[in-house]
Design goal:
Helices cover 74% and strands 0% of the residues. The chain is an all-alpha fold. The longest helix has 36 residues, at 68-103. It is globular and about 65 Å long.
């Protein structure tokens, strides 16, 4: 009697050479433009693509346009949200790719060192006590402060062990989360509603002033991360190997983490906490182009932008009211993580 046994095979990886990887990144960039164009038309009030084109011509080159209301919707509401989604998606996804490379763990996300908990504490301060500073400024400051505290706690004898850094991030995050919970307990109903809605994340308050603030910062930050991609490739081999090859590991980790944290903090300060982007998209990009961060970082940034534009479009169209975008990203992200876990389980033999 023969006993049949199911044999699990390793999943086949998509293989691209460097030239094809460049073409793929260009194709994804074109897809991003198409998604942005479609998002300008889609909403509770559908606008014909030809009318959208006329509105853009009017705003950019002064060509007359007949419908003033449609112009306001396209230029002042939808376009600002789309540009903010593109910028924040690129920031979170590229930061996630860098953190996953540094920690050599595909399940690491940009919030691992406490930036989201610190930003939430800053937002809670601004909402409950009405400080003379803006909510965005306090959220950014305390987000950076939380990561600085994490790094300071983890640093020992001139070095920062990765495991200790993660544990320090958990401790600092728990501390700030506890303080946010206290604020939720003592706040009024109106304050609690504002805070909870901010914690869920959203692009509904996007303005051209926000775009002018965040776009250059994120652009410079992502460019700096990409310029250090080759060092990150070496660092991903292990700190011992990186030191052998002449890389100053502590300085390289500090530059990469400060840059990734800064663009993450400014993103969170403007949009609230948006989960899964920095975890899911870098992992998906790594499955496509492999661990070479010269291609991984730009592809993850573009995929993060596409994903967040799609999620924001869903958030403002699937209901008569505004659905927090954090809910949409969680609904789409959780099944993806389950798929990855199931896939890895099959690969390991069930």
């Amino acid at each position: 009697m023969k006993v049949s046994q199911k044999i699990y095979k390793a999943p086949k990886k998509i293989s691209f050479n460097n030239q094809n990887k460049k073409k793929l990144i260009g194709t994804m960039g074109l897809l991003l433009v198409l998604v942005m164009a479609a998002s300008l038309c889609i909403g509770a009030y559908f606008i014909d693509p030809r009318e959208v084109f006329q509105i853009l011509r009017h705003k950019l080159w002064g060509v007359p346009v007949p419908n003033g209301m449609a112009g306001t919707i396209v230029w002042d509401i939808r376009l600002t949200r789309i540009l903010l989604a593109v910028t924040v998606g690129a920031a979170l996804a590229s930061s996630g790719a860098v953190y996953q490379g540094i920690f050599r763990n595909p399940l690491i996300e940009p919030y691992i060192l406490g930036v989201s908990s610190g930003a939430a504490f800053g937002a809670a301060l601004a909402i409950l006590f009405e400080f003379p500073y803006s909510l965005q400024l306090l959220a950014f400051f305390f987000g950076m402060l939380a990561v600085t505290a994490t790094y300071s706690v983890a640093r020992m004898n001139g070095e920062t062990p990765l495991v200790t850094l993660i544990l320090s991030g958990v401790i600092i995050s728990s501390l700030f989360s506890a303080m946010v919970s206290i604020f939720q307990y003592i706040g009024t109903e109106e304050q609690l509603r504002r805070l909870v809605f901010w914690l869920m994340g959203g692009l509904y308050q996007a303005t051209w002033s926000d775009i002018k603030t965040i776009l250059p910062v994120v652009a410079v930050g992502v460019l700096l991360l990409w310029m250090n991609a080759w060092k990150l490739n070496v660092l991903s081999l292990g700190e011992t190997e990186a030191k052998t090859l002449g890389i100053h590991t502590e300085r390289t980790k500090a530059v990469l983490m400060v840059t990734a944290t800064a663009i993450t903090a400014i993103s969170v300060s403007l949009t609230g906490i948006i989960g899964w982007v920095g975890l899911m998209l870098p992992h998906a990009a790594r499955l496509i182009v492999g661990p070479d961060h010269r291609f991984l970082i730009p592809l993850a940034a573009i995929m993060g932008s596409i994903f967040l534009v799609v999620c924001d479009t869903l958030a403002r169209t699937i209901s008569t009211g505004e659905v927090p975008i954090g809910i949409i990203t969680a609904i789409l992200g959780a099944p993806y993580l389950l798929f990855l876990l199931r896939r890895r389980s099959n690969y390991m033999g069930g």
